[in-house]
């Protein structure tokens, strides 16, 4: 099923909650857990979302004061993460924003079903004159370091069966075994010899140590299909998790994208477009389906639209789903 067909199927499954739909955007107004359970398995390429932080206890953010105890919040997030794991494609990615004080516990919980790839620190710099509480507060009254940064947990779906719980490693081993090719023979056919390891790159791919390039994957695909024992192999974009980066882009795990300046009607947790663009361009392919299940003011939807991706925006607050629709119509 191609991405356009997958998007239509998702729309059909959640239609009772949809407030806006076109060929690239779905806006859904309902509780996210209910909606997530209706989304077909293995249909989302990138989950990019900003749940309530709980630790901040802000009354102007829906759900931020919902839980009295940390464990209640973690248990709720685990329910959601179970659905994230189910609906993400095997080569998908998850970026989950969170408060620094909850990040360690969320990371441990997520590691049950995901491989944690990075713990990103967003420093949240402000332009001069827009420092908010950081500029106004009495520093001498502090009794701990001021929590000015936020965290982003970046991970991929985990698949048990190899050293690094790699979904692609499991796929390759399964298809190679079905084809009757040994690791050495596939290495020979692809020319992927290692200097030390006689199994070459094939052994590393199957244990999840690294991934093949697009050219290498095509050789793997041709070699396996040419045995006539395997009927199909997924395309590169459906097999390999995208991570498209260069020396000209931010490539470390400390990010300095400026916070969104205050404006009338701003969502209190709005994220900057340049940061969302960076995530979407690094971790998705063109036409991929992106999900933001705590979509707020629709910033992920706008970024997805600008970068030629499809997007599903879910929010429980009608004010913000209506606002998202207006933003899309005004800007595009």
Automatic annotation (TrEMBL):
Keywords assigned by UniProt, alphabetized: Methyltransferase, Plasmid, Transferase
Alphabetical list of InterPro entries matching this protein: Cro/C1-type_HTH, DNA_methylase_N4/N6, DNA_methylase_N6_adenine_CS, Lambda_DNA-bd_dom_sf, RM_Methyltransferase, SAM-dependent_MTases_sf
DNA methylase N-4/N-6 domain residues: 44-322
Enzyme nomenclature, EC number: 2.1.1.-
Pfam families named in the record: N6_N4_Mtase
Signal sequence, start to end: none
GO molecular function term, any single one: N-methyltransferase activity
Superkingdom of the organism of origin: Bacteria
Alphabetical list of SUPFAM superfamilies matching this protein: S-adenosyl-L-methionine-dependent methyltransferases (SSF53335)
Keyword Nucleus: no
GO BP terms in the entry: methylation
Protein's UniProt keywords contain Phosphoprotein: no
Family: Belongs to the N(4)/N(6)-methyltransferase family.
UniProt protein name: Methyltransferase
């Amino acid at each position: 099923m191609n991405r356009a067909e997958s998007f239509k199927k998702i729309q059909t499954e959640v239609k009772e909650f949809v407030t806006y739909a076109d060929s690239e955007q779905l806006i859904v107004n309902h509780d996210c857990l209910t909606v997530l359970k209706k989304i077909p398995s293995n249909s989302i390429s990138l989950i990019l979302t900003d749940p309530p932080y709980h630790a901040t206890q802000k009354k102007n953010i829906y759900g931020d004061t919902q839980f009295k105890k940390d464990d209640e919040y973690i248990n709720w997030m685990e329910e959601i993460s179970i659905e994230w794991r189910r609906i993400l494609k095997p080569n998908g990615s998850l970026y989950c924003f969170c408060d620094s004080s909850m990040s360690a516990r969320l990371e441990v919980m997520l590691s049950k079903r995901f491989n944690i790839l990075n713990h990103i620190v967003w420093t949240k710099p402000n332009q001069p004159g827009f420092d908010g509480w950081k500029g106004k507060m009495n520093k001498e009254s502090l009794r701990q370091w001021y929590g000015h940064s936020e965290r982003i947990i970046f991970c991929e779906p985990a698949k048990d069966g190899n050293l690094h719980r790699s979904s692609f490693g499991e796929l390759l081993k399964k298809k190679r075994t079905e084809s009757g090719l040994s690791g050495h023979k596939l290495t020979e056919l692809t020319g992927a010899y290692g200097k030390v390891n006689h199994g070459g790159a094939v052994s590393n791919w199957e244990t999840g140590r690294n991934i093949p390039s697009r050219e290498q994957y095509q050789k793997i695909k041709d070699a396996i299909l040419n045995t006539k024992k395997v009927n199909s192999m997924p395309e590169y974009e459906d097999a390999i998790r995208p991570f498209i980066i260069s020396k000209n882009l931010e490539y470390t795990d400390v990010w300095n994208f400026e916070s969104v300046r205050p404006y009338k009607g701003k969502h209190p947790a709005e994220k900057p477009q340049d940061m969302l663009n960076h995530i979407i361009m690094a971790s998705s392919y063109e036409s991929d389906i992106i999900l933001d299940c705590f979509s707020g003011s629709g910033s992920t939807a706008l970024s997805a639209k600008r970068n030629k991706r499809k997007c599903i925006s879910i929010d429980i607050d009608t004010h913000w789903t209506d606002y998202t629709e207006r933003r899309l119509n005004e800007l595009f």
